[in-house]
Amino acid sequence: MTWEYRVCREHYDDERILDDERDGFTIREVHYWDDDETKIHVTTEREMAPFGLSLDQIKSCLEMMTKALDKPVIDLDTLEYYEPTDEEYDAYSDDDGDLDDGIPFN
């Protein structure tokens, strides 16, 4: 699996957030199944903020986020996540049944 930052749109209708209903945009991590950008498997639940242990790492993170602005916006309200078949999942699983791709799911 691969991932990248992407701009995502979602509809907000919560009066605590906005005075009226409207769409909002965030940057999130998007993880693709089998390195195929047409197969979005998961996204982060919340928006991502730049993070780093040094200024260079923050700069690198911001550069990756900026690249998301050049890609199509993902509409989270209509997104259909890719669900791998059992065979596809088994190909990525280790002996414990966890995905063996370096992504910490715990």
Describe this structure in words.
A hairpin with a 7-residue loop joins strand 2 (22-32) and strand 3. The chain is an alpha+beta fold. The chain has 2 helices and 4 strands. The chain has a 4-stranded mixed beta sheet, covered by helices on one side. It has one domain (2-85). Residues 102-106 have low confidence and may be disordered. The two termini are 17 Å apart. It has helices at 55-67, 86-92, and strands at residues 2-12, 22-32, 40-43, 74-75. 19% of the residues lie in helices and 26% in strands.
Keywords:
2 helices, 106 residues, disordered C terminus, alpha+beta, 4-stranded mixed sheet
The shape is globular
Order of helices and strands: EEEHEH
Averaged pLDDT, please? 84
The whole-angstrom Rg is: 16 Å
Strand order of the largest sheet: 3-2-1-4
Number of domains: 1
The secondary structure category is alpha+beta
Termini Cα gap:
17 Å
The percent range for helix content is 10-25%
Uncertain residue ranges: 102-106
Give me the number of helical elements.
Answer: 2
Number of separate strands: 4
- What share of residues are in beta strands? 25-35%
Major sheet size, sense and barrel closure: 4 strands, mixed
